[in-house]
Structures are given as C-alpha cells and as structure tokens.
C-alpha cells in the first residue's frame, strides 16, 4: 500500500511541506447519542505511554492525539497535531508546524514544549514504556535509555508552534511512529500531579474526555466539545461496561442493550450468528495484519535450549487449533502475516512432526520430559486453544499447567519475564502500522525484551538487531533491498525458534442495528477495535 511516507520522501527533495488528505465528514452522520461497549476484563490503564493491548488501544486513541494520524479506517497517514511538516533531503530531520489553538482537556493550550516533554517521557526508562524502542532512531535515544541524559538531544523546540526532530539515521518508519499512541502529546503538569495514577486520570487533546471510571464496572467517555477537528466526534459519549462475559454481551446486543461487543463474537456462537440472516447482516469482517503465536521464554530453562524450542514448534497441530476458531485463519510459518511487505513466500517453517519432536528433548538431556506453565488470556476461545496446546505437548512428554488469567495479568507476567510460555490470543500481534519493522522491534527485538516490554520470549540477538536497524535505515520504505533484509531477519529469528507462529486470523465483530458509519471503522487497522471518533448512531 502506498503511504504518505513514500510521498514525503519525494516532497522532501523539494523542501515542500507535506500535507495529507483529510477526512470528509460523513453526510449521513447524525450528531449526538451514546453507545455501550462491553468487555470481560477491566481496563488496565489509559496512559498512552504504557497502554498497549487490544482493549485500551482505541480508547487511548480517542483521548489523545499525536503529531501524525491516519485517515479513519485506513493505514494512510495524515497530519494530526502537526498542521504540516518538512523532511530534509537525507531523511534525518523532520520539522513539524503545530496547529494553533489546540487545547488539552484541562483548557491549556498545547505547545511544542509539550511535544518534547512527551517524547522525553516515553523514552525515559523510569516510565517503563513498552513502546520506547520505537523511538530508537531519534538522536540522543541511547543516552536517555542508558541514564546518561534525561532529554532527547534530537528533539528541539524551535518556537511555541514548531518542533524539530533529528534522527541519528534515516528511519523509514518514523512518520508512522509519530502516529502511534506512544507518541501522544500529554500535559506535563497533569502527569506530575498524578504520577503513576495518570493512567486513571488521563488528560489529552483527543475527541473524548474521561467522565467516569468505576473500577470493575464502567469507564465513561464524554464528547470533547472543544475538539480541534471540526464536526467530530459524532457521539456525545461512550460507555465501556466491564465484567461482561462475551456470551452475555452477545445476548444483550441481540436485545438492543449493547452496541458493540468489545471481545467480539464468542466462537461457540459464531456459526449460529452467521446462520441467522438478521444477525449476519450486523457482522463486520476485515482483514488484519495479524499473527497469533506462542512465546517461549529463552531465559527460562529448559526453553533456553534450542532443541526444546524446536520440539515445541514441531509438536503443535496448527490446523486443529484453527478449527477451534471456526476456521477463521490460515496456518502461520513465520512472524510476518502473508499480506505484510517482507513476508517470505515459500518459507515452510517447522513441520508438524510429532515423532521428530519426541526426539528433540533428549538432545537437551530431557528424555523424560519436563513440566512447565502456559499463560493464557481467560476469554474464549483462548483457554480452549491452550488446552489444545497442552494436549499436543503432552504427546512429546511436556506436561503443561495452564494459567488462565485476565488480559492485564498475562501482559504483566509476560513483561516481567515470569511466564515460561504464553499463548498470545486476545493479545496477539496486529501491526500498529503496515511495515515489517513493527513485527520485530516491540515483540522480538532487544528493545522490547526489557521489563514491561512486549517481547515475552525475552529473545535478544544483537546481530539480528543490527540487520533490523540496517533494514530501517532507508528513506524509501518500499525499497526491494530493505524488504529483502527484513525477510532475512525473520528467517534468522525462526532459526532460533523463540516463538511458535500458529495462525494468521481474519477479524470479525458485530454492531447493533442502530450503529452507523463505514464498516471499516469497526475493524479499523490502527484504532483497534473501533474508531469511536467517527462512528455514530442512527436513532
């Protein structure tokens, strides 16, 4: 897909400000009304520097803005808080002109100082942001992460409405990074007032404000009447009800009490829904850059031995697991999904070979097998998938105890390195942006392997990291040489087997009969799962 970064590389040579196509308000949209969204688990945090799960991603995106953004329902970049930007000829200096008159929810005007503070904060090791590694190309990043500096030398306030960011190398993904939640602009005084509790007292510049948070019951958003984008949001508010079992949520949707079941269609009810024309008409299907996988903690014996990791890869019956989710996926052979640039066509990965897998533990001195733990999110179908994994591994002498927990608890255990194995379902990787880099840095690279990071395998290979850095040090993200490097990165990763890639899944959700807006907004690739700023109600 052509994106704005490709265009900006050409514009940069002419030193012209890069402008993005904006979004035309939907003429059918009716302003007003509120909707109800359900989730089984409570919300972990609404701090954009920390939140990084399926549940809170779109919530955070509706509370905060960054310099860059996406055209709703697409992966096409457009300016956000930046009205325009210029890029130097060598692709290392980005100068952003900020919009005038944008205010935080507390009424204070946003300035370039806030942008600098926010980028310094997200890269500060004390913040423990799982997204810090995305900013590694900014000059001064290494000094900040090493504790040698408390500010990024490459981020410069030119004047109250101009910010200049200098990179230590070209970075083909940089404008996408500026559109991530992690790059959201936050007010320093509010962060300092609430400290660690900023995640439950969020203040941004976004389309909605936080009106209520009753732990274990609901989170309520209200429309930001002073939002800087004209005409949106359409809704007056969104109520997120938590503690709702997905099957109960589906029943309430059928009764008109719920507008979007946040956890999706329960697999046990999927066929029933699809066989009913009235319900099937409210199902939204979308492709996604997704891989579901099992992480193997390479720092936890016996997964510190390659032969054991190879055995697990060879023992998993991926076709049987796909049956658990009603066939809504294809088997995965590598971390990248097939539609992602850099995917290696014809790469076979590890074969399903139970007899071959049985011989592997003996190579590691574990001929009698061993016992381990598999962490899994407690929302169906993930516990059933965990049971299938458990059964597969029992065939080769690996006894697995399943730890079925709330999403936030699994993420916490993974980030802390406490989980020997994790089934990623419900948290499985969906690309933050359509570039092969995004499947490496946060979940397989050294930068994501620290405390709180999403590299739950704790895999870190400095040689592969170096190749990944080389792959991103291009101005043109679509360069064939760059994509070949990324292909090599993922083949090298699979040779060390820190993961079991299991499947690439299609995405399905539902909406109530009164919901309006393009279907793409309900399977928005960057506002997962729903772009609340642009949906509306018709009654």
Automatic annotation (TrEMBL):
InterPro entries: Peptide/Ni-bd, SBP_5, SBP_5_dom. Residues 76-450 form the Solute-binding protein family domain. Keywords: Signal, Transport. The keyword Protein transport does not apply. Its main location: periplasm. It is found in: Periplasm. Belongs to the bacterial solute-binding protein 5 family. This is ABC transporter substrate-binding protein. It comes from Paracoccus nototheniae.
